[in-house]
Amino acid sequence: MLVDGPTFAAPSTRKFLSSLKLLASTTDKAEGAKKALSSVLRRVEGALEAVGGKSAMLTTLGGHPLTHPLSDTFFSQTPFRFGAFVAKFSLAPSSTNLTQLSGAKFTLAGRPDALRE
Question: Residue 84 domain-assigned?
Fold first, then answer.
């Protein structure tokens, strides 16, 4: 499985379990509030990035910009062993068509199948 962050978001198994429990307890609850919070967090993260900053916490909590999935780079986050070698993987767009999508606005509003489209 590949994800869009180069490192694991939780610094320890205890923190990971804590965030997983929180996620499980809020799944399918207060969807409208979560969408509103995510929208606010994306704006705050965008403003922070505009002045040269970046917040992993804001991004993880829902502030990740809505980008085209084919324009993103994905990472394995965990190392894999190949004999005497250990490596992490990443997949990045390289064709002109895909790199042009980088940073492009991606609208999900009113489009339940937007990612599939």
Answer: yes
Q: What is the per-residue pLDDT across 69-78, written as a single tens digit (0 to 9) for each?
A: 788 888 988 8
**Three-state SS at 68:** coil
Per-residue pLDDT tens digits for 15-42? 888 888 877 887 788 778 877 887 888 8
The 10s digit of each residue's pLDDT in 91-101 is 888 887 777 77
Q: How far apart are CA 42 and CA 63, in angstroms?
A: 4
117 contact partners, CB below 8 Å, separation of at least 6:
111
Q: What is the pTM of this model?
A: 0.59
Contact 27, 49 (CB under 8 A): no
- The Cα 64–Cα 30 span in angstroms is 19
Whether 116 is covered by a domain: the verdict is no
Cα separation, 33 vs 5, in Å, equals 25
Q: 79 near 87, Cβ under 8 Å?
A: yes
Residue 3, in any domain of the structure: no
